[in-house]
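TICKET: design request
STATUS: open
ATTACHED STRUCTURE:
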C-alpha cells in the first residue's frame, strides 16, 4: 500500500492540468506496480486500488467521473 500511495502522490504532483481522477490513478498505479516486486501484493482487481489511494487524492480527483467533452 505504501508503494501505491507513493506512486499515486508522485503522479498527482505531475498532473498540472488536474485531470486524473481516483479511478484513473488506480489503473495507472496498478499498471506501474505490475512491473515491480510488488506484483504479488496487488489486489486481483485494478479498481481495488482506489481504496488504497483515495485518502491521499487531491480534491479535484475526488469529483464525480470524467469531465464531459464539449
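STATUS: resolved
RESOLUTION: sequence designed for all positions
ATTACHED SEQUENCE:
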Amino acid at each position: 500500500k505504501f508503494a501505491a500511495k507513493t506512486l499515486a502522490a508522485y503522479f498527482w504532483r505531475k498532473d498540472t492540468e488536474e485531470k486524473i481522477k481516483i479511478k484513473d490513478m488506480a489503473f495507472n498505479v496498478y499498471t506501474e506496480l505490475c512491473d515491480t516486486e510488488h506484483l504479488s501484493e496487488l489486489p486481483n482487481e485494478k479498481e481495488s486500488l482506489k481504496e488504497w489511494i483515495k485518502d491521499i487524492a487531491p480534491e479535484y480527483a475526488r469529483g464525480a467521473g470524467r469531465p464531459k467533452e464539449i
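CLOSING REMARK: DSSP finds three helices and no strands in the chain. The CA atoms of residues 57 and 65 lie 14 Å apart.
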